[in-house]
Amino acid sequence: MTQDNLSLATEFTLTGFTDHPELKPLLFLVFLTIYLITMVGNLGLVALIVTEHRLHTPMYIFLGNLALMDSCCSSAITPKMLQNFFSKDRMISLYECMAQFYFLCLAETADCFLLAVMAYDRYVAICKPLQYHTVMSQKLCAQMITGAYTAGNLHSMIHIGFLFRLTFCRSHQINHFFCDVLPLYRLSCADPYINELMIFIFSGSIQTFTITTVIISYLFILFTIFKMKSNKTRGKGLSTCASHFLSVSIFYGSLLFMYIRPSSVNEEEKDIPVAIFYTLVIPLLNPFIYSLRNKEIIKVMRKIMKIS
């Protein structure tokens, strides 16, 4: 391979959303709107939880950290994507790729653990209400949040580290709207089997553990709700659980489809629609799913609106 080819191998072109150039202005406006709503919703929720003393409880602290990670996820992807709508070359360097994937992987991994922690928190609150303040102590909450961020950082660093063993000598066009590792593997002239195996092992283990925690927690919650005598209380509980579980299902389902499917069934044309769900749609919906049905947050928002 010549020196020119080696230098080209450190830069890539993101070709996502280029099939229909006439739709670029519309797509730009749509994704810009989604990004702004996502940031206002998530960062507004974080600010609300930080400033309002009555929201300094485990459930809202976990929710605030989830909103923070959703903001991180959206910010890792969207600004570069919006820039590329009107960029001629749509170039991204290998190190920019690594940085983009690092923050995305950090946010998504932390989200997995935070969703599991939130499910466990609801299990204790509903199934063991008398023991809630003893079980969900400040120390345990801090340890859980620290563990989620630590796991996200380590998971990201593992895959970034294994990227250094690859060289890229094929087409430098990434058929995606951000720099994900799976499209990069397809461009590698070295066998990416080890990298794919690491993704399968670590992503599979993380998602299996956190999904199992979520499912078991919600099963116990449902059993407890069905034992309640009041139809009104039962209905509210089921409604809340259903909306939360829908969000969790979409998030985990898209991640499982994207990263845990066998390499033999990897289909590039399906990567973009699936990625839109877990990088853009879920961060957009989460603050509304987890807050609009929450009486405490609604009370605080009404209080602030009256003061202003």
UniProtKB/TrEMBL annotation:
SUPFAM superfamilies: Family A G protein-coupled receptor-like. GO terms for cellular component: plasma membrane. The chain crosses the membrane at residues 26-48, 60-79, 99-120, 140-164, 197-226, 238-260, 272-292. It comes from the Eukaryota. The keyword Transmembrane applies. Residues 41-290 form the G-protein coupled receptors family 1 profile domain. Keywords: Cell membrane, G-protein coupled receptor, Membrane, Olfaction, Receptor, Sensory transduction, Transducer, Transmembrane, Transmembrane helix. Pfam families: 7tm_4. Putative odorant or sperm cell receptor. This is Olfactory receptor.
